[in-house]
Amino acid sequence: MTPRDASEPNRSRWSDLDRPPLNVTALRRGLVREGGLWSEVDVVQRTGSTNSDLVARAAEGGAAEGAVLVAEEQTAGRGRLDRQWTAPPRSGLFFSVLLTPGEVPVERWGWLPLLTGVAVATGLSRSAGVDTALKWPNDLLVTVGGDERKAGGILAERAGEGGVVIGVGINVSLKENELPVPTAGSLGLAGAVSTDRDPLLRGVLRALEEWYGKWRAAEGDPGVCGLQEAYAAGCATLGRVVRAELPGDRAVVGEAVAVDGDGRLVLATGEGVQEPVGAGDIVHLRPV
């Protein structure tokens, strides 16, 4: 789907005064700098998927590392396992970034979604004052009324031979009656001190630049750069009994005891076996 301009009929950029549009000029001024990671910041009013758009741009040679694409509204946003991600216009942060970690061995690129999760949690803690937790591998959790709810997700896709596009979706100002499912949440419902999306986006992208720089300097070694320790410290999955629903209709139940050097979740099963899980759907069965 081609991004549509804000001037399209019957759509006002100020149609919801509680949800003002992002200020792209201020975002560029605050993020794009000489020697920094972010090379360009674009904001579109509406598109199907920022990930799909940026992957296509990268394939055509129309985007360099550090390109950031933000949508005020996504109509075909995707999560893991091709689940749909939708939200009202300007109610959240929906963006994708292009990274080209050429000096990092490809086998370590699987850490990028986890790295992004740590960066998102770090940035939101600083700018929104909300305690967040990470559900392995790529969900952002907040607490609403004592219940743990999903407020965001991360999706990484290869872009050509040397690139990775990472998409992030965060529910910012969604109200209870706007949530797509009862288990969803938002920063606003979790008591954020601010739901102003401009500083929230700047905070997340600055934290992502910081963590990506450390990881890249360590040639992707998650132990050397502190990423493995930081992820484990913020991971709500560790210490819980979980069910891992794996490809091929197989499921494993066990206690999540570690995230290993490859970013896999290690489960201690009832049979006394430690089984690493590299892909699958994780269901939390028991709180810590």
From TrEMBL:
One Pfam family it belongs to: BPL_C
Species of the source: Streptomyces venetus
Protein EC: 6.3.4.15
Protein name as it appears in the record: biotin--[biotin carboxyl-carrier protein] ligase
Domain of life: Bacteria
Keyword NAD (UniProt): no
Class in the EC hierarchy, top level: ligase
Domain BPL/LPL catalytic: residue ranges: 27-216
CDD domains (alphabetical): BPL
Keywords associated with the record: Biotin, Ligase
GO function terms (MF aspect): ligase activity
